[in-house]
Amino acid sequence: MRIEDRLFADRFRADTKSHLKIIDPKICHKCSGKQCTYACPAKVYTQEEDGSVRVAYEGCLECGTCRIICQEYKNINWAYPRGGFGILFKFG
Amino acid sequence: MKDKFDCIVVGAGPAGISAALTLVRAGLKTVVIERGEYPGTKNVMGGILYTRPLEELIPEFWKEAPLERHIIEQRVMLVSKDASTSFSYKSKQLDEPPYNSYSIMRATFDRWFASKAESAGAIIINETLVESLIVENDKVIGVRTGRADGELYADLVIDAEGVNSILARDLGLHPEIPEHNVALAVKEILALPREVIEARFNLKAEQGTAIELVGDISAGMMGIGFIYTNKESLSLGIGCLISDLRKSGMQPYDLLDRFKEHPMIQPLIEGAQTKEYSAHLIPEGGYRAIPPLCADGFLVAGDAAGLVNSVHREGSNLAITSGRLAAQTVIEAKKKNDFTCRALSLYKKLLDQSFVMKDLKKYRNFPAIMEKNKHFFTTYPSLLSDSAYEMIKVDGVPKKTKQWKIIKNFIKGRSLWGLVKDGFNLLRAIG
What we know:
Structural class of chain A: alpha+beta
Oligomer: heterodimer
Helix content of chain A: 10-25%
Structural class of chain B: alpha/beta
Number of domains of chain B: 3
Shape of chain A: globular
CATH architecture of the largest domain in chain B: 3-Layer(bba) Sandwich
Number of strands of chain B: 17
CATH class of chain A: Alpha Beta
Strand order of the largest sheet of chain A: 1-6
Strand content of chain A: 15-25%
Number of helices of chain A: 4
Low-confidence stretches of chain A: none
Number of domains of chain A: 1
Largest sheet of chain A: 2 strands, antiparallel
Low-confidence stretches of chain B: none
Largest interface: A-B, 39 and 52 residues
Mean pLDDT of chain B: 96
Shape of chain B: globular
Order of helices and strands of chain A: HEEHHEEHEE
Distance between the termini of chain A: 20 Å
């Protein structure tokens, strides 16, 4: 099952601004592991052709994996979305 | 100073609501700040709630709470690539009220639980994120929320924000959670008709099964899968240590697909429709990873304090109990008007006396031993399946020869010394 189809089953109220920020995009070029691009369960992070990392915050499930797994560089400024925004679980 | 409360509770999950309910019953002015649309919309767990800790707060809660099925069977499946060896405990005792546990959905359950605190007098503010603590002279005196003029003050703050524990981290109670102390679990709600669930899991109406799975499904990582029956759906998920996930290079949803496609699992979920996909972290560090639980004007409860029994997959019951004990500590502190960390150390004492710390202490070696001995999740489930197949298959080979072959396989798989060490480690892990 594609991750996009999975996220389609979920209810979101996306904010207009990202709650996740890459602190220094240049550091991502240096990062050989790029764990965020595969460990994130919502595929929020994707590597672009130029080696930078794009953040699709709208599908974020707010788990915290990206923050914890970016241990070498601590390059993700992680926060919860503003109150009322983000994932809204129907079942949980 | 405007809006001064006796206590601010951050997060309307099991720990926060349990604390708030206990506080307002003692007449304390309490506010709960919840970032979700309503309590429960941000909250995820596998899905089993144990009755006892909640019953102490709300007697006979099962008569009104939104619950799914009471669990009458607990099954462990040790899974190899294409087989599984199961251990199941099913009993009439578990089918007699008051039931030991229920499958639940957190979005509906937490909303109901919070309504109990609200009708008892707690103020619940939804859709509001606590961004930081307000600290004055090293004492926590309130919280800063994302709302305009959103500062709230109180004698004490109970941090029940959940596993990410950002506020406690920012206050310096613990560093960032190391990746070997936390698991990522991904889960799906799989809809199936009631009668299909009851036929596939051999259940009558209202009865439920809880299955935990170890082995090939975690692809060599330290991890556990689960399948819990709800009224008209299954909660199916798998969790793995983040440090293992990094090494594996696997995507969590691919792991979930692999689990769902396993030949021993697929028939159970055939035809089911995915109604929701969720992800959540689980503290796995156990006793040795518990941070200091208080600072001046500040207490930490539930997942934010890492209170999860990873051996028995218990968390919400530890959260409910720790929330209640944190509240009791606040009530005592309020009587003496002393909110220093020293006065709040009563909380640790109460936790130590309860099952919470006693259980966590019993299994204090478990996380480190399991993390270093992945073969408990890989080699043994396969060896067990191979052995069962060998003994069950009738092929003209005498059983005694088969028995020797099995013993040789175990020695080949782990070496004689390895087997002895594993036995010793397993005993040490479960103490």
